[in-house]
Amino acid sequence: MLILEGGAGGHMRHPFDLDDVKTGRDLVSKFAQIAKEITDGNLPDTKIDGVNTSIKLVDGPSGKEFAMDRGSGQPLDVEGITVSRLGEKFAEGHGMIAAGKTVLGIFNDALADITPELKALGLYDDSSKFFNMEYVKGTTNVLSYDHDFLKIHGVNQFYEKSIRGKPARPGLERPLGEDGKPIKDPSTQVDYSKEAMDSMVQKLNKYSKKYGFSVYSSIPSKAVKQFDFSQVGTVPAPVTISAGNVDNKTLAERLQVAQNRIDEQVTLKDGRKIPAQGKEIYKAVLGASAADKNANPQRQIALDQLLANQSDYQKAIDGAVFWHATRLLGNVIIDSMEVDHPAVHGPASDHEGMVIKLKGDDFATKITGEFILGGEASTFRKEEPDAGNSVGQDTKEVTTNRIIAIYPGRFHPFHKGHKSAYDALASKFGKENAFIFTSNKVELPKSPFTFDEKVVMMNAAGVDTTNVFQARSPYKAEEVLKKFPATDMSKTILVYGVSKKDMDEDPRFAFTPKKNGTPSYLQRYQDNTELQTMDKVAYVTVVPTITFNVLGQPASSASELRNQFSTLDEEEQKQFITDLYGKYSPEVHEIFKQKLLNNSQLSESFVNNVLKMIMEMSGAGVGSMEAPQSTIDLSQSKKVTSKSSTQTVPMNELMPEIQKRLKALQGNK
């Protein structure tokens, strides 16, 4: 299974990400600096094509233990994803569950032995520090290795993080960038003792054998010939402005005037805004291909067809040129290097690239060469089309069309089971393409929560709520288009995710033909088939969900959860919320109390059932309380009636009153 998770370590920096690279000429100078430092003995570390698996040491129920941390502000990441909690973070079958069990198993087994090294490295009593690692098992993403191993890049430390103004993660104070705003990096590399790291790695290898893994730290590459950049500048870099109008220049000519566009965006014809300096623009403007190093007008999209505004033309050209130069200059470095290490050996070009910490920097810079596009050669992905005629977002289901994947639902309430289904959808189609749709409809007693209240629950469950939309009828294409007004239906694939639990218990889609014999609009999604666009059909895919307990019992239906909450005392309610979301949320607790305890129509059915029970027990001679003459329409009277008295009970006192009567019954037994 292909695992494409981000990770706490974040992205290492390309040369064009560096603050002192502001122009094309600066970029060339930076590569010259890299070449000189390597020649002078600053050997780069080989960049391994693995899965980022960052771990830290936390205080668990039974003492110290290792936990994964993907670097988000979600409570589960901040607290740490221990072995026992992997199922809370990743859906059943997700590759990170197996990876986590292996990585955490190795380190936990060795914990007592490596404690001195952990203290020397600064991780033993500081969970904001973590090991930034790669997990390599056979062919992980693109490259194939002859044995399984872990590669520790070094020690990182998280920056502090807030969500909606509230502290979400402790860590280093976040520094300001050149724009005066806090930087967005999740963490930064920190200095550590190489001797302590080497000692720890040596000890870890005694424990990793049981898992069939080896553990390494540095895997250096060395130069085997001189670096010669002279030919890169002569490479043609044509750009198609409009049909039949190709602007022909060399790469050197374009670099002379190019500006670094790393933080700028351009607007596409379909209305989307994307980075001016990214893979999409590189492929569209220069016709870049993993199979061909040359810029090719036959694969290019004319700027007047690609971009909405002429003012974006130069931004896009500069962004594409920076990527192309970084690729070709990186090739010169990598093609001059080789690796000779037990983990890997042979030409450096056989691997994902190299990482070097340049003098004066407190971070690493990566040199990728061909691998800047090489991920598209993955055996886990479909082959790249010969010529792309549209710019699509990068997704795990690779296609030249855009994908919109929607997880729709009523969500009364939303909880971590729904979160796991959404995560599975995002894992399959890409987080940037996965959205949650839910309505603002409040209809008691089945639908008590507003859209905004459900968003609070989603946030408590760890959902990135920027991908949550309010929609009345999410299964209608026109409703989807309201949220994505620039969408071209003929170039967009629409997929709905439905949880396996819902499909098993109450299959809502038969996928049968219409009465006239034509196929229904909603069709069953199948892997490895050519997908049609949303102007013709939409697809339904079944996504797995986790099973979990609430107050020691398997989580039940939404209506049963709502009714269950209204029977609980204050402490039980807090545990109920904790079980639903993985962590106690006072905001969600307050919403539940307001909607499930104080709402008359919602409580009506429950109260009548309880009073009916009191009546039956009383009629059987259990106690001295007389049975009520009738059930209660709380929405009308707000009264509890019995033969002996008529007592007005405010809604927020309804449960205490019922509990008092039940205790009275028990006392009279």
Describe the protein in words.
With 669 residues, this protein is an alpha+beta fold. It folds into four domains: 49-218, no CATH class; 229-377, no CATH class; 392-597, 3-Layer(aba) Sandwich (Rossmann fold); 600-667. The chain is built from 19 helices and 29 strands. Helix 1 (24-39) crosses helix 6 (251-257) and helix 7 crosses helix 9. The protein is globular, with a radius of gyration of 30 Å. 37% of the residues are buried. Mean pLDDT is 81; it is low at 1-11, 375-400, 600-604 and 620-652.
Any key phrases for this structure?
669 residues; alpha+beta; Rossmann fold; 4 domains; 5-stranded mixed sheet; 29 strands; 32% helix; 18% strand; globular; disordered N terminus
Describe how the helices and strands are arranged:
Blueprint: H1 24-39, E1 45-47, E2 51-52, E3 55-60, E4 63-68, H2 75-79, H3 86-89, H4 95-121, E5 129-136, E6 149-158, E7 161-163, E8 166-169, E9 187-189, H5 194-208, E10 214-216, E11 221-223, E12 239-242, E13 245-247, H6 251-257, E14 265-267, E15 273-275, H7 279-286, H8 303-306, H9 313-335, E16 337-340, E17 345-347, E18 353-356, E19 365-367, H10 371-374, E20 402-408, H11 416-429, E21 434-438, H12 451-461, E22 468-470, H13 477-483, E23 492-499, H14 500-505, E24 522-524, E25 538-543, E26 549-550, E27 553-554, H15 558-565, H16 570-581, H17 586-597, H18 600-619, E28 639-641, E29 646-648, H19 654-667
Parallel strand pairs: 6-10, 20-21, 20-23, 21-22, 23-25, 24-25
Antiparallel strand pairs: 1-18, 2-5, 3-4, 5-6, 6-9, 7-8, 11-16, 12-13, 14-15, 16-17, 18-19, 26-27, 28-29
Helix pairs in contact: 1-6, 1-9, 4-5, 6-9, 7-9, 18-19
